[in-house]
UniProtKB/TrEMBL annotation:
<dbReference type="InterPro" id="IPR015915">
    <property type="entry name" value="Kelch-typ_b-propeller"/>
</dbReference>
<protein>
    <submittedName>
        <fullName>Galactose oxidase</fullName>
    </submittedName>
</protein>
<feature type="signal peptide">
    <location>
        <begin position="1"/>
        <end position="17"/>
    </location>
</feature>
<keyword id="KW-0732">Signal</keyword>
Length: 334
């Protein structure tokens, strides 16, 4: 018995280990007992610090390992990673040139954990980054709003992983946004916040955070029909690039920043953005919001929230107080 307890204690302690690299904006997905991290931004926070590697955390041993590199010419930011039908998909994102030009990328890549290889499976009809990508009924991927090259789009794009075909669903009825967050429970998704972009008098984008939350009800008999309704705003300030997930009958949100920012963490108002420690959730069954205890450490610039088991969740990497890119995992129980 003592040996078993010691092994369990060692594994729990090891699971707290930092990643081998510090990264913000990691696209993250869990497959079995492995959490995979893709792309991301290194501590220098310049275009030269945008990575294209893959790392994995084994939740049983707590050991990190480098899996390999993603077969693209440049690293990307604001991609989405998710697991559907036991397969890991890496979708979209954007590249940044040395001159600061940002271009949305269209590929849907399927990642094969056993071999560490990638296959380009499809091309998005409307390439988007900083979108919300949700797995539905272990078959579909639902992509809601996001940024396309020069502006936000209201498109809801649905990818059927069985037929490998795209369809256009009922558009997002709120203000089109990027950097929003959301989750899906059964056939109900909730999408919140993000940043809208309006044209100023000079024709340039004027960015402002949104406090809108919308609930969308999906129908497997008519996958492209979504019934949307607006929800009351969630507790606390609206957030940009929070982590979110649908799990345990609720949609859970954590972290983010109340000041929207460029990829380097500096706000569009030229002030450094600071992270939030907020945690809140929505219960579709009761239609109510709930506030939870604050995170043990504030964090921002997340691309997902991962259930770790036993009621625990993890936010991987990100930017912490003082604009520091982190290699840590913020673990918490709501």
């Amino acid at each position: 018995m003592k040996t078993i307890l010691l092994i369990a204690a060692f594994a729990a302690g090891a699971a707290q280990a930092d990643a081998p690299v510090a990264r913000a904006n990691w696209a993250v997905a869990r497959a079995g007992d492995q959490v995979y991290t893709f792309f991301g931004l290194g501590p220098g926070k310049t275009d030269a610090d945008i990575a294209r590697d893959v790392h994995a955390l084994d939740l049983r041993s707590g050991v990190w390992r480098k899996v390999g590199d993603i077969p693209v010419a440049q690293g990307r930011l604001a991609s989405a990673a998710l697991t559907v039908g036991g397969k890991v998909y890496l979708i979209g994102g954007y590249t940044v040139s040395a001159r600061g030009e940002e271009v949305s990328t269209p590929e849907v890549m399927r990642f094969l954990p056993d071999s560490g290889r990638f296959a380009t499976e499809s091309i998005m009809p409307v390439p988007v980054d900083d979108s919300v990508a949700l797995p539905w009924r272990d078959r579909w991927i639902v992509m809601v709003s996001g940024w396309h090259d020069k502006g936000n789009v209201a498109d809801v794009q649905m990818y059927d992983t069985l037929t490998q075909r795209w369809s256009s669903a009922t558009p997002y009825p709120g203000k089109p946004v990027f950097g929003h967050a959301g989750g899906l429970v059964d056939d109900t998704m909730v999408i919140c916040d993000g940043v809208g972009a309006d044209k100023g008098a000079d024709g340039k984008n004027v960015f402002a955070i949104s406090n809108e939350c919308w609930q969308g009800t999906l129908d497997p008999q008519q996958p492209d029909r979504i019934r949307w309704r607006q929800l009351p705003a969630h507790p606390g300030a609206p957030l940009y690039r929070a982590g979110a997930v649908g799990d345990g009958g609720r949609i859970l949100f954590a972290g983010g920043s109340s000041r929207p920012y460029n990829y380097n963490g500096i706000g569009y108002d030229k002030q450094p953005s600071e992270p939030s420690d907020a945690v809140f959730s929505f219960d579709p069954a009761s239609g109510t919001w709930r506030s939870h205890a604050a995170l043990p450490q504030a964090g921002m610039d997340f691309r997902g929230l991962i259930p770790l088991g036993d009621g625990e969740y993890g936010l991987f990497g990100g930017i912490r107080a003082g604009q520091q890119v982190s290699a840590g995992v913020i673990r918490f129980r709501p």
